[in-house]
Design a protein that fits this description.
The chain is an alpha+beta fold. Helices cover about 40% and strands about 20% of the residues. The two termini are about 45 Å apart. The structure holds histidyl-adenosine monophosphate.
Amino acid sequence: MINVPKGTKDVLPNQSHKWRFIENAARETAAAFCYKEMRTPTFEHTELFQRGVGDTTDVVNKEMYTFEDKGGRSMTLKPEGTAGVVRAFIENGLASSPMPVKTYYITPAFRYERPQAGRLREFHQFGLEAFGSPSPETDAELIFAASSFLDKLGVKGVKLELNSIGCRICRGEYNKALKNYFAPHLESMCPTCRSRYDKNPLRMLDCKEEECKKIAAGAPKILDYLCEECKEHFEKVKELLTAQGVEYTVNSGIVRGLDYYTKTVFEFVSTQIGSQGTVCGGGRYDNLLEELGGNPLPAIGFAAGIERLMLLMENTGVDFPEEQKPALYLAGMDAASRALCFKTAIYLRGKGVCAEFDHMNRSVKAQLKYADKIGARYVAVIGESELATGTVNLKAMKDGNVNSVKIAEIEEYLK
Ligand code: HAM
């Protein structure tokens, strides 16, 4: 017996309608906010993530599914959606389109992490990425889109946490302050933090080790080091969100786990799904296009984890729409009536009606039992008289009411 790989999940037929519900809400939200879909490959050159996501991040250092292809190239299954979208944006010359260019995706992503509730090795993200606008309105729009998406799903109690991690200018000052602060503590910090000290001290705030976390709690706060422009930008984002009635708290501890962020960063966090409570995260990445070889262009995005949202919805009893059930089951008695069942089912399906017939050569009694099990709304038994008159008795399964309906009028009747 070969089992599903650790950290991955099957979506079975009785679950897929829940997935579709979330994906439909994602697509509807994206459409309403004028974001268009973009699809990029599942694997990319490893260097894209090393340069894009950053080689001081856990994602790149520890979690990537990297392999050599048969041509000897190093490839990596995408650990997130942004880097591929940015690569495609630059490569396809979308920078010459009218700005902003607003895109969205629903994609699998792969991270070799220790699996637990809400943390998988293959998971799925719904993300928005907006290119070309430096304005705080775009930040507020994007955050509002994330919040509308969560509302559409009916999830409750998710808190928005907001921070700004500044631009190159303020980050320079802040990095100095962090280094001064951490220098006397380095001895008692983990090897990863010690290696990050020189390369990227901001990452030291993201360490999960208990001792490092304690030390990091006393570190200087980025918000005290923002330059005038970043400060103003952050104030405006908050003002716009408040005006729109979006509740948030400023959490200066949010630095995000990926290296490309600048200015606004945010997370939507739930306390109802265990330790992996971040259902959605994102922020600005105004330097990434340039870092990946494009012309400088500001951008901002977020991604929400579909499995985490599913977990949250299931844990909090959100009502999913019912899974699709057949509108009509056609039971046949003999060869001629079975042929009519087949023909009628095909005709109704052509009209968009979900109709089913017997595939298993069962008795009429067994066919009706099956129709009940699959939740058919109506059943019709086709026999000699139905063949002769072209009229069937449709029995409603919920109350047993029977009505005689012409085959040509079934579709109308079922509406
Ligand atoms: P991220 O915070 O690494 O950001 O991931 C976004 C979301 O993906 C998380 O909030 C979480 O819901 C989900 N997620 C991450 N890792 C896992 C996992 N192992 N298992 C299940 N769900 C997971 C990004 O990926 C950025 N690309 C977001 C972004 C877009 N920033 C700007 N644009």
